[in-house]
Automatic annotation (TrEMBL):
MF GO annotations: cyclic-guanylate-specific phosphodiesterase activity
Shown segment, full-protein numbering: 105 to 381 of 395
Name this polypeptide is given: Diguanylate phosphodiesterase
Residue ranges constituting the EAL domain according to the UniProt record: 23-276
Keyword terms: Phosphoprotein
One BP term from GO: phosphorelay signal transduction system
Superkingdom field: Bacteria
Length: 277
């Protein structure tokens, strides 16, 4: 009753599988995820703080691998940016988010849609053309769309995309500067790029109730954004106290687990119905 001896082919398969577990992100695995449609979106609401009503949702990307389960974006976006996958992935995200938005529009669910965009896309691809084509295809008004921009140190300069960003704004699409305070955005960019929204990074929001310096930073980002004519969104609201403090500071919009976690489209519809009744 000895166990069957392991064959060399079994071993090779085993090693390959172990390799995938320790390093799930590769050029091959990303290509195959795109080909086999393994990406999907979760939606997290943004509410107007003074009326506590939902105004928008942010599309957050997930990768469902058949062997490894759900892989969060922090694990693969950077790699995708550096290896030429970010454009096809983003166009797929835009397609999914806009068809969802169109469905919600016709169902009377009046929210706008925010999509995360790597800065690198603005200098290297025609974001403007693709956006306007997708909006037209789904018969969506450009004002229903917000593009959230994050700049990471490695992916170059936001300024290279200034012309594209200006064209998008003229078209009526909103631009949001994400992770303000911890990203790599500078005052020059805030000054030159026509952002309509500023997002306070959740690192400060999470600490402001116990840390006077974090509180001062949040207050001043709100005031800076609003003096420049932008609406300000606080992300990472995890408690009622956070929400109350931000309301008192005059912050426009809020987002976070206390308000609503990232949800499937179906769960968002239930959440929305409850919130609006
Ligand atoms: P982000 O744009 O700053 O998104 C906010 C992240 O914080 C999300 O993580 C969200 O699930 C999480 N979050 C929301 N509320 C709370 C809260 O109250 N507490 C805490 N602790 N966390 C909260 P997620 O979905 O894992 O996304 C991580 C990052 O990946 C995003 O950060 C964004 O930069 C990037 N990302 C997501 N989807 C896309 C995409 O389609 N394209 C690109 N280029 N990047 C994306
Ligand atoms: Ca974002
Ligand atoms: Ca953010
Ligand atoms: Ca972030």
């Amino acid at each position: 009753f000895l166990p069957k001896p392991l064959k060399l082919t079994d071993l090779t398969t085993l090693v390959a599988q172990l390799d995938r577990v320790s390093n799930p992100v590769s050029n091959d695995s990303l290509n195959s995820a795109l080909e086999n449609d393994h990406f999907f979106l979760m939606y997290q609401p943004k509410i107007d703080l003074s009326s506590a009503t939902p105004v928008s949702v942010e599309a957050l990307l997930r990768w469902k691998d058949p062997d490894l389960g759900i892989i969060p974006p922090d694990k693969f976006i950077r790699f995708a940016e550096m290896n030429g996958h970010i454009a096809p992935i983003t166009w797929r995200v835009m397609e999914m988010a806009m068809s969802q938005l169109a469905r919600w529009q016709s169902a009377g669910i009046r929210v706008t849609m925010a999509i995360n965009m790597s800065a690198v896309l603005f200098s290297r691809t025609d974001v403007c053309d693709i956006t306007s084509r997708l909006l037209a295809e789904h018969q969506l008004d450009p004002s229903l769309l917000t593009l959230e921009l994050t700049e990471t140190a490695e992916v170059g300069n936001l300024m290279l995309g200034l012309e594209t960003m200006t064209r998008l704004r003229i078209m009526g699409v909103d631009l949001s500067l994400d992770d303000f305070g911890t990203g790599h955005a500078s005052f020059t960019q805030l000054y030159q790029i026509p952002f309509s929204e500023l997002k306070v990074d959740r690192m400060f929001v999470g600490k402001m109730h116990q840390d006077p310096n974090a509180y001062a930073i949040v207050r001043n980002i709100i005031s800076l954004g609003q003096s420049l004519g932008m609406r300000v969104v606080a992300e990472g609201i995890e408690t009622e106290q956070h929400q109350q403090m931000l309301l008192e500071m005059g912050c426009n919009l809020g987002q976070g687990y206390f308000i609503g976690k990232p949800m499937t489209a179906e769960d968002f519809e239930t959440w929305f119905a409850k919130r609006c009744s």
